[in-house]
Protein backbone atom coordinates (compact mmCIF):
# COMPACT_ATOMS: atom_id res chain seq x y z
CA UNK A 1 0.00 0.00 0.00
CA UNK A 2 1.40 3.37 -0.94
CA UNK A 3 0.23 6.97 -0.84
CA UNK A 4 1.57 9.95 -2.73
CA UNK A 5 0.60 13.57 -3.20
CA UNK A 6 0.34 15.70 -6.31
CA UNK A 7 -0.29 19.42 -5.97
CA UNK A 8 0.31 22.67 -7.77
CA UNK A 9 2.94 25.00 -6.40
CA UNK A 10 1.64 26.88 -3.42
CA UNK A 11 3.92 28.78 -1.04
CA UNK A 12 1.37 28.23 1.75
CA UNK A 13 1.07 24.52 1.22
CA UNK A 14 2.93 23.91 4.51
CA UNK A 15 3.15 26.26 7.46
CA UNK A 16 6.53 27.95 7.15
CA UNK A 17 7.23 27.78 10.89
CA UNK A 18 7.83 24.05 10.45
CA UNK A 19 10.37 24.29 7.64
CA UNK A 20 12.59 21.68 9.33
CA UNK A 21 9.90 19.06 8.59
CA UNK A 22 10.03 19.39 4.81
CA UNK A 23 12.35 20.24 1.95
CA UNK A 24 12.14 22.56 -1.02
CA UNK A 25 12.54 20.92 -4.42
CA UNK A 26 13.42 23.14 -7.39
CA UNK A 27 12.81 21.54 -10.80
CA UNK A 28 13.67 24.69 -12.74
CA UNK A 29 16.74 25.43 -14.84
CA UNK A 30 18.38 27.64 -12.22
CA UNK A 31 18.22 28.31 -8.51
CA UNK A 32 16.45 31.62 -9.04
CA UNK A 33 13.48 29.97 -10.75
CA UNK A 34 10.35 29.90 -8.62
CA UNK A 35 7.84 28.62 -11.17
CA UNK A 36 8.94 25.01 -10.58
CA UNK A 37 9.69 25.10 -6.86
CA UNK A 38 7.82 22.65 -4.65
CA UNK A 39 7.66 22.01 -0.91
CA UNK A 40 7.91 18.28 -0.29
CA UNK A 41 7.28 16.13 2.76
CA UNK A 42 8.09 12.45 2.23
CA UNK A 43 8.24 9.42 4.45
CA UNK A 44 7.92 5.65 4.07
CA UNK A 45 6.02 3.29 6.32
CA UNK A 46 7.25 -0.25 5.91
CA UNK A 47 5.11 -2.80 7.67
CA UNK A 48 1.78 -1.06 7.11
CA UNK A 49 0.75 -2.83 3.93
CA UNK A 50 -2.47 -4.82 4.03
CA UNK A 51 -0.77 -8.23 3.97
CA UNK A 52 1.52 -7.38 6.89
CA UNK A 53 -1.47 -5.79 8.59
CA UNK A 54 -3.31 -9.12 8.49
CA UNK A 55 -0.47 -10.81 10.35
CA UNK A 56 -0.48 -8.05 12.97
CA UNK A 57 -4.21 -8.42 13.31
CA UNK A 58 -3.99 -12.20 13.78
CA UNK A 59 -1.54 -11.78 16.65
CA UNK A 60 -3.81 -9.18 18.23
CA UNK A 61 -6.84 -11.42 17.69
CA UNK A 62 -5.18 -14.38 19.41
CA UNK A 63 -4.86 -12.33 22.61
CA UNK A 64 -8.13 -10.39 22.60
CA UNK A 65 -10.80 -12.29 20.67
CA UNK A 66 -13.76 -14.04 22.25
CA UNK A 67 -13.19 -17.79 22.53
CA UNK A 68 -16.17 -19.63 21.06
CA UNK A 69 -14.92 -23.14 21.77
CA UNK A 70 -11.79 -24.80 23.14
CA UNK A 71 -10.87 -28.44 22.49
CA UNK A 72 -8.00 -29.53 24.78
CA UNK A 73 -7.79 -32.97 23.14
CA UNK A 74 -6.94 -31.42 19.77
CA UNK A 75 -5.11 -28.43 21.24
CA UNK A 76 -7.28 -26.06 19.18
CA UNK A 77 -9.29 -22.95 19.94
CA UNK A 78 -12.19 -21.47 17.97
CA UNK A 79 -12.09 -17.65 17.87
CA UNK A 80 -14.71 -15.15 16.78
CA UNK A 81 -13.47 -12.87 13.97
CA UNK A 82 -15.45 -9.89 12.69
CA UNK A 83 -12.96 -9.30 9.85
CA UNK A 84 -13.86 -12.55 8.06
CA UNK A 85 -17.03 -12.96 5.98
CA UNK A 86 -19.91 -14.51 7.87
CA UNK A 87 -19.45 -18.28 8.17
CA UNK A 88 -15.93 -18.47 6.72
CA UNK A 89 -13.54 -20.61 8.77
CA UNK A 90 -9.77 -20.30 8.54
CA UNK A 91 -7.06 -21.98 10.54
CA UNK A 92 -3.87 -20.35 11.73
CA UNK A 93 -1.01 -21.68 13.81
CA UNK A 94 0.80 -19.64 16.42
CA UNK A 95 3.95 -20.38 18.36
CA UNK A 96 3.69 -18.91 21.81
CA UNK A 97 6.83 -18.13 23.75
CA UNK A 98 5.33 -19.77 26.81
CA UNK A 99 3.95 -23.23 26.27
CA UNK A 100 3.46 -25.41 23.19
CA UNK A 101 2.09 -24.22 19.88
CA UNK A 102 -1.67 -24.01 19.55
CA UNK A 103 -3.96 -24.23 16.53
CA UNK A 104 -6.28 -21.24 16.35
CA UNK A 105 -9.37 -21.40 14.17
CA UNK A 106 -10.99 -18.15 13.07
CA UNK A 107 -14.73 -18.21 12.48
CA UNK A 108 -16.05 -15.24 10.54
CA UNK A 109 -18.92 -13.15 11.85
CA UNK A 110 -18.95 -10.53 9.09
CA UNK A 111 -19.44 -7.50 11.36
CA UNK A 112 -17.59 -4.75 9.50
CA UNK A 113 -18.14 -1.94 12.02
CA UNK A 114 -16.55 -3.98 14.82
CA UNK A 115 -13.73 -4.96 12.44
CA UNK A 116 -13.07 -1.29 11.63
CA UNK A 117 -12.99 -0.41 15.35
CA UNK A 118 -10.53 -3.22 16.09
CA UNK A 119 -8.23 -2.25 13.23
CA UNK A 120 -8.42 1.41 14.28
CA UNK A 121 -7.25 0.53 17.79
CA UNK A 122 -4.42 -1.52 16.33
CA UNK A 123 -3.25 1.41 14.18
CA UNK A 124 -3.82 4.01 16.91
CA UNK A 125 -1.33 2.22 19.15
CA UNK A 126 1.44 3.22 16.71
CA UNK A 127 0.39 6.85 16.27
CA UNK A 128 0.80 8.60 19.62
CA UNK A 129 3.95 10.63 20.14
CA UNK A 130 5.22 13.84 21.67
CA UNK A 131 6.28 16.74 19.46
CA UNK A 132 7.51 20.26 20.02
CA UNK A 133 6.53 21.48 16.55
CA UNK A 134 3.80 24.07 16.52
CA UNK A 135 0.67 23.08 14.57
CA UNK A 136 2.22 19.68 13.84
CA UNK A 137 0.46 16.42 14.58
CA UNK A 138 1.87 12.94 14.86
CA UNK A 139 0.88 9.98 12.79
CA UNK A 140 2.38 6.55 12.02
CA UNK A 141 5.58 5.62 13.85
CA UNK A 142 5.54 8.90 15.78
CA UNK A 143 6.57 10.98 12.76
CA UNK A 144 5.43 14.63 13.09
CA UNK A 145 3.37 15.77 10.13
CA UNK A 146 3.60 19.44 9.06
CA UNK A 147 0.43 21.44 9.32
CA UNK A 148 -1.09 20.99 5.89
CA UNK A 149 -3.41 23.24 3.94
CA UNK A 150 -4.94 20.60 1.68
CA UNK A 151 -7.43 22.88 -0.06
CA UNK A 152 -5.16 23.22 -3.12
CA UNK A 153 -3.88 19.64 -3.15
CA UNK A 154 -5.01 16.35 -4.61
CA UNK A 155 -4.14 13.06 -2.95
CA UNK A 156 -3.87 9.73 -4.73
CA UNK A 157 -3.90 6.25 -3.26
CA UNK A 158 -2.55 3.42 -5.37
CA UNK A 159 -2.08 -0.34 -5.06
CA UNK A 160 -4.22 -1.61 -2.16
CA UNK A 161 -6.29 1.57 -2.01
CA UNK A 162 -7.43 0.87 -5.56
CA UNK A 163 -8.00 -2.88 -5.11
CA UNK A 164 -9.81 -2.56 -1.77
CA UNK A 165 -12.28 -0.03 -3.12
CA UNK A 166 -12.72 -1.20 -6.71
CA UNK A 167 -12.12 -4.94 -7.21
CA UNK A 168 -15.39 -5.97 -5.53
CA UNK A 169 -17.23 -2.75 -4.69
CA UNK A 170 -16.52 -0.81 -7.89
CA UNK A 171 -15.86 2.37 -5.89
CA UNK A 172 -12.50 3.31 -7.39
CA UNK A 173 -11.92 7.00 -8.00
CA UNK A 174 -13.06 9.70 -5.61
CA UNK A 175 -12.99 8.29 -2.09
CA UNK A 176 -16.17 8.33 -0.02
CA UNK A 177 -15.91 6.76 3.43
CA UNK A 178 -19.66 6.35 3.91
CA UNK A 179 -20.16 4.57 0.58
CA UNK A 180 -17.19 2.29 1.30
CA UNK A 181 -18.51 1.51 4.78
CA UNK A 182 -22.00 0.63 3.49
CA UNK A 183 -20.64 -1.55 0.67
CA UNK A 184 -18.24 -3.36 3.00
CA UNK A 185 -20.92 -3.92 5.65
CA UNK A 186 -23.27 -5.43 3.09
CA UNK A 187 -20.58 -7.68 1.60
CA UNK A 188 -19.17 -8.93 4.90
CA UNK A 189 -22.60 -9.74 6.33
CA UNK A 190 -23.30 -12.14 3.45
CA UNK A 191 -22.94 -15.82 4.17
CA UNK A 192 -19.68 -17.23 2.86
CA UNK A 193 -21.58 -19.75 0.71
CA UNK A 194 -23.38 -16.88 -1.02
CA UNK A 195 -20.12 -15.02 -1.64
CA UNK A 196 -18.47 -18.15 -3.02
CA UNK A 197 -21.39 -18.89 -5.35
CA UNK A 198 -21.29 -15.33 -6.67
CA UNK A 199 -17.58 -15.64 -7.24
CA UNK A 200 -18.05 -18.88 -9.20
CA UNK A 201 -20.71 -17.16 -11.34
CA UNK A 202 -18.13 -14.48 -12.26
CA UNK A 203 -19.90 -11.68 -10.40
CA UNK A 204 -16.57 -10.48 -9.02
CA UNK A 205 -14.56 -10.34 -12.23
CA UNK A 206 -11.64 -8.36 -10.78
CA UNK A 207 -11.23 -10.50 -7.67
CA UNK A 208 -9.53 -13.81 -6.92
CA UNK A 209 -10.07 -16.23 -4.05
CA UNK A 210 -7.59 -14.40 -1.84
CA UNK A 211 -9.39 -11.12 -2.43
CA UNK A 212 -12.86 -12.35 -1.48
CA UNK A 213 -11.44 -13.95 1.68
CA UNK A 214 -9.59 -10.84 2.85
CA UNK A 215 -11.80 -8.07 1.45
CA UNK A 216 -13.48 -7.33 4.78
CA UNK A 217 -10.19 -6.82 6.58
CA UNK A 218 -8.42 -4.97 3.76
CA UNK A 219 -11.21 -2.45 3.22
CA UNK A 220 -11.26 -1.75 6.98
CA UNK A 221 -7.46 -1.52 7.10
CA UNK A 222 -7.23 0.87 4.14
CA UNK A 223 -9.92 3.17 5.50
CA UNK A 224 -8.61 3.17 9.09
CA UNK A 225 -5.05 3.75 7.95
CA UNK A 226 -6.19 6.76 5.93
CA UNK A 227 -8.11 8.42 8.76
CA UNK A 228 -6.43 7.16 11.96
CA UNK A 229 -2.89 6.69 10.73
CA UNK A 230 -2.49 9.45 8.14
CA UNK A 231 -4.94 11.90 9.77
CA UNK A 232 -7.17 12.54 6.77
CA UNK A 233 -10.59 13.94 7.77
CA UNK A 234 -13.52 11.56 7.38
CA UNK A 235 -15.21 13.91 4.92
CA UNK A 236 -12.14 14.23 2.67
CA UNK A 237 -13.17 15.00 -0.91
CA UNK A 238 -9.82 15.33 -2.70
CA UNK A 239 -8.49 11.80 -2.18
CA UNK A 240 -8.64 9.43 -5.16
CA UNK A 241 -7.83 5.76 -5.56
CA UNK A 242 -6.30 5.18 -8.99
CA UNK A 243 -4.79 2.39 -11.05
CA UNK A 244 -3.47 4.37 -14.03
CA UNK A 245 -2.44 7.91 -14.88
CA UNK A 246 -2.22 9.11 -18.47
CA UNK A 247 -2.66 5.51 -19.59
CA UNK A 248 0.30 4.28 -17.50
CA UNK A 249 -0.25 1.88 -14.61
CA UNK A 250 1.02 3.30 -11.33
CA UNK A 251 2.60 0.87 -8.88
CA UNK A 252 4.84 1.14 -5.83
CA UNK A 253 7.26 -1.40 -7.35
CA UNK A 254 8.73 1.29 -9.61
CA UNK A 255 9.83 3.27 -6.59
CA UNK A 256 11.27 0.14 -4.98
CA UNK A 257 13.31 -0.63 -8.11
CA UNK A 258 14.65 2.91 -8.31
CA UNK A 259 15.57 2.75 -4.62
CA UNK A 260 17.46 -0.50 -5.11
CA UNK A 261 19.30 0.83 -8.18
CA UNK A 262 20.33 4.14 -6.62
CA UNK A 263 23.97 3.04 -6.04
CA UNK A 264 24.50 1.07 -9.25
CA UNK A 265 26.07 3.91 -11.31
CA UNK A 266 28.82 4.33 -8.68
CA UNK A 267 29.34 0.63 -8.17
CA UNK A 268 29.70 -0.15 -11.84
CA UNK A 269 31.33 3.08 -13.00
CA UNK A 270 34.67 1.43 -13.87
CA UNK A 271 32.94 -1.47 -15.56
CA UNK A 272 30.89 0.90 -17.68
CA UNK A 273 34.04 2.79 -18.73
CA UNK A 274 35.72 -0.44 -19.78
CA UNK A 275 32.64 -1.55 -21.68
CA UNK A 276 32.42 1.75 -23.51
CA UNK A 277 36.11 1.56 -24.43
CA UNK A 278 35.72 -1.94 -25.86
CA UNK A 279 32.55 -0.93 -27.67
CA UNK A 280 34.32 2.04 -29.23
CA UNK A 281 37.19 -0.16 -30.48
CA UNK A 282 34.79 -2.70 -31.91
CA UNK A 283 32.77 -0.08 -33.75
CA UNK A 284 35.95 1.54 -35.04
CA UNK A 285 37.23 -1.75 -36.49
CA UNK A 286 33.89 -3.10 -37.60
CA UNK A 287 31.38 -0.32 -38.17
CA UNK A 288 27.91 -0.95 -36.85
CA UNK A 289 26.40 -0.37 -40.30
CA UNK A 290 28.23 -3.42 -41.68
CA UNK A 291 26.68 -5.66 -39.06
CA UNK A 292 23.23 -4.29 -39.79
CA UNK A 293 23.54 -4.63 -43.58
CA UNK A 294 25.00 -8.14 -43.43
CA UNK A 295 22.35 -9.22 -40.99
CA UNK A 296 19.56 -7.91 -43.20
CA UNK A 297 20.99 -9.61 -46.32
CA UNK A 298 21.26 -12.89 -44.48
CA UNK A 299 17.65 -12.68 -43.40
CA UNK A 300 16.50 -11.91 -46.95
CA UNK A 301 18.53 -14.82 -48.33
CA UNK A 302 17.14 -17.27 -45.79
CA UNK A 303 13.61 -16.07 -46.48
CA UNK A 304 14.02 -16.64 -50.24
CA UNK A 305 15.52 -20.12 -49.76
CA UNK A 306 12.75 -21.19 -47.42
CA UNK A 307 10.09 -19.81 -49.76
CA UNK A 308 11.51 -21.69 -52.78
CA UNK A 309 11.71 -24.94 -50.83
CA UNK A 310 8.14 -24.51 -49.63
CA UNK A 311 6.87 -23.95 -53.19
CA UNK A 312 8.76 -27.00 -54.49
CA UNK A 313 7.38 -29.12 -51.69
CA UNK A 314 3.80 -28.06 -52.44
CA UNK A 315 4.24 -28.68 -56.18
CA UNK A 316 5.64 -32.13 -55.44
CA UNK A 317 2.63 -32.98 -53.30
CA UNK A 318 0.20 -31.82 -55.99
CA UNK A 319 1.94 -33.76 -58.75
CA UNK A 320 2.17 -36.89 -56.59
CA UNK A 321 -1.53 -36.75 -55.88
CA UNK A 322 -2.96 -35.80 -59.27
CA UNK A 323 -0.29 -37.03 -61.76
CA UNK A 324 1.66 -39.89 -60.19
CA UNK A 325 2.75 -41.42 -63.55
CA UNK A 326 4.05 -38.13 -64.91
CA UNK A 327 5.92 -37.59 -61.69
CA UNK A 328 7.82 -40.86 -62.21
CA UNK A 329 8.66 -39.96 -65.80
CA UNK A 330 9.74 -36.48 -64.75
CA UNK A 331 12.05 -37.85 -62.08
CA UNK A 332 13.48 -40.35 -64.56
CA UNK A 333 14.28 -37.63 -67.08
CA UNK A 334 15.88 -35.46 -64.41
CA UNK A 335 18.02 -38.30 -63.14
CA UNK A 336 19.16 -39.32 -66.62
CA UNK A 337 20.15 -35.78 -67.47
CA UNK A 338 21.78 -34.82 -64.21
CA UNK A 339 23.48 -38.10 -63.21
CA UNK A 340 25.61 -39.63 -66.03
CA UNK A 341 26.13 -42.92 -64.23
CA UNK A 342 22.42 -43.49 -63.83
CA UNK A 343 21.91 -42.44 -67.45
CA UNK A 344 24.36 -45.11 -68.58
CA UNK A 345 22.73 -47.73 -66.38
CA UNK A 346 19.29 -46.94 -67.76
CA UNK A 347 20.35 -47.15 -71.45
CA UNK A 348 18.92 -50.10 -73.38
CA UNK A 349 21.96 -52.01 -74.79
CA UNK A 350 20.13 -55.21 -75.67
CA UNK A 351 20.53 -54.61 -79.44
CA UNK A 352 24.31 -54.64 -79.13
CA UNK A 353 24.55 -58.01 -77.41
CA UNK A 354 25.39 -61.08 -79.56
CA UNK A 355 22.64 -63.59 -80.13
CA UNK A 356 23.20 -67.01 -78.69
CA UNK A 357 21.20 -69.93 -79.66
CA UNK A 358 20.24 -72.22 -76.89
CA UNK A 359 21.08 -75.86 -77.60
CA UNK A 360 20.20 -79.02 -75.74
Task: Explain what the structure shows.
- This protein has 360 residues and is of the alpha+beta class.
- It has 2 domains: 2-48 and 114-260, Nucleotidyltransferase, domain 5 (2-Layer Sandwich); 271-347, no CATH class.
- It contains 12 helices and 14 strands.
- The strands form 5 sheets. Strands 1-10-12-11 form a 4-stranded mixed β-sheet. Strands 4-5-7-6 form a 4-stranded mixed β-sheet, covered by helices on one side.
- The longest helix is centred in the last third of the chain and has 35 residues, at 288-322.
- The relative contact order is 0.10.
- Mean pLDDT is 75; it is low at 1-17, 288-293, 341-346 and 355-360.
Instruction: Tell me the major beta sheet.
Output: 4 strands, mixed
* Strand ordering within the main sheet: 1-10-12-11
CATH architecture of the largest domain: 2-Layer Sandwich
| Cα separation of the termini | 111 Å
Number of helices: 12
CATH topology of the largest domain: Nucleotidyltransferase, domain 5
Strand content: 15-25%
Which stretches are poorly predicted, pLDDT < 50 over at least 5 residues? 1-17, 288-293, 341-346, 355-360
Structural class: alpha+beta
Q: Could you estimate the helical fraction of the residues in percent?
A: 40-55%
- Number of separate structural domains: 2
Rg, please?
A: 38 Å
Mean pLDDT across residues: 75
Amino acid sequence: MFLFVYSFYNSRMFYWSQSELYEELNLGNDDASVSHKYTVFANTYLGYGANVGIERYKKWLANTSTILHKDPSKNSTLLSDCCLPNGLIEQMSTDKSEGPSEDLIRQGRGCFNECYDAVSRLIQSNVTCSTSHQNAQCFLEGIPLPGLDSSNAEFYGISEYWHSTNDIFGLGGCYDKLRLKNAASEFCSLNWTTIWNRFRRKQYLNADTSRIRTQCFKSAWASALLHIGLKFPEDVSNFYSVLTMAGQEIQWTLGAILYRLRHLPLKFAEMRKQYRRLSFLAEKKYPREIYIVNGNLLLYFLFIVVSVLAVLYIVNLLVSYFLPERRVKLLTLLLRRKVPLINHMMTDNSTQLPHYRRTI
